[in-house]
Amino acid sequence: MGSRSVLGGIVRRLSSTKGSSGGPPAPRTEGLARAAGPGGIPGRWIRVVPKPADVEPTVDREVSDPTEALAVRAGWQLVDAYERLSVLGARQVFGREVDAWRAYTEETIVDLRSPDGLGPAHQSLNNRLRFRRMMDFARPGDRVFDVGFGRGFLGAQLIKGRGVVSYHGIDIVDTYMADAQALFATNGLDDAAMTLEKGDLYDLTREKIEAAGADLVICCEVLEHVPDAELALRTLADALPDGADLIFTVPLIGRLEGVWGHVSVFGVARLKQMLDAAGLHAHHVEPLSNVWALVVANRDPGLSQRVRDATHRPPTRVEVPLTRSFDFLDVSSADYAVSPDGVEPAGLDLEDGVTVATRFAASGGVRFPVPGLESLRLAFDFAEVEGLESVTVVARSGPTETCRWEWVVAQPPEGEVAVKVRPGETDSRFVSSRHDKVDRTDHVDVAFTLRDGGSVAVRIAASVLP
């Protein structure tokens, strides 16, 4: 990609003139939270981040329009959510939204022909979506200055698919010039208002960009390659003509870190600090294809007409129900039975149709049927507690355990205790185990473990979300 070419040159230049002192390093994470992944196999879904230091609250540098400011806040929060999730975790949560964006891209983007005559020009789904979003924020009649034109894919898309009137690109890699020109010629752009030159981001000035008449500057996949990303963004901001907008992208944390040319990561906190230091206002922020963070910015805090005019995917609904049922079902008292795991038999007193009362003079429990298990509510009313060590909830499909929650009792409970348990999650008391095949659950055991001589008298009610 073109960004990679510019970056290679920038890294070489900065390494020779400034060393690697690109500001303080990002804080290290302390590891990743472990949770049950697909099939109950331990996996990492959520990143553990360092506990923030006690600092004075910082007021965000926001745009003046309240509606736009709220949208930008929501965008930052969404980027933060993506980055706190692993790639697979984010795909699990946001995958349908990403798929909708990809479908929109494939329906609307221009298919470029490859200069070698072997069919379409190769572009990954992620890059095609990134190009599509650049097109969405470009407007017919725009004059574009692209820092890192690469092999010319974005430039060709902007001319053919968006109707920009001129495109000027710089890149540091000599061979990309011929590649891009061949792509333009193959796709009928020989006479388009497109100019390319070898150039370095750090040589950019406002006069140079104004000479191209640019009202939109694009700098995608550049900042992660340089040891001083803050200086790079300030250079772009200083070179930005009055009234012009800047669109840039950087990888989300945890995505493209296997690319050895990437020398740093960002995150919301760093990006906000960089924008502040560069004198820029963010007018639009979004996560892009579970790979990048996209920012539209300029020096004017006023309402951005570019953001207002931007096109987007159709409002196709992507949400699906998080549960198979929306209503809790009370377990009938007639369905309770003494758990066969009980050491000593105990009777059950049916009370109001959904509650049973029982007493154990040794470890024991109750069992009741459930039609699958999404969430379970339990209500205990302890009348007598002596020597209670733990309460365990075990979900089973036939003889096979599908999930287990355990409450290690530190202080004897008194009176009413209401809890909820969900597969893979913990309550304030119960801690969950693995939970593969929990949707096949057909019954639940609630077991009480007592010390020798202990006893428990308790009323129990259960309500299940299938």
Q: Supply the number of helical segments.
A: 10
Shape: elongated
Unreliable residue runs: 1-43
**What profile does the largest beta sheet have?**
10 strands, antiparallel
Structural class: alpha+beta
The proportion of residues forming helix, as a percent range, comes to: 25-40%
Order of helices and strands: HEEHHHEHEHEHEHEHEEHEEEEEEEEEE
The beta-strand count equals 19
Written description of the protein model:
It is elongated, with a radius of gyration of 30 Å. Helix 4 (about 125-135) packs across helix 5 and helix 8 (about 230-240) packs across helix 9 (about 270-280). The strands form three sheets. Strands 10, 11, 12, 13, 14, 15, 16, 17, 18 and 19 form a ten-stranded antiparallel β-sheet that branches. The protein starts with a helix and ends with a strand. It has ten helices and 19 strands. It has helices at about 1-15, 65-85, 85-110, 125-135, 155-160, 175-185, 205-210, 230-240, 270-280, 305-310; strands at about 35, 40-45, 145, 165-170, 195-200, 215-220, 245-250, 280-290, 290-300, 330, 335-340, 350, 355-360, 365-370, 375-395, 400-410, 415-420, 430, 445-465. The chain is of the alpha+beta class and about 475 residues long.
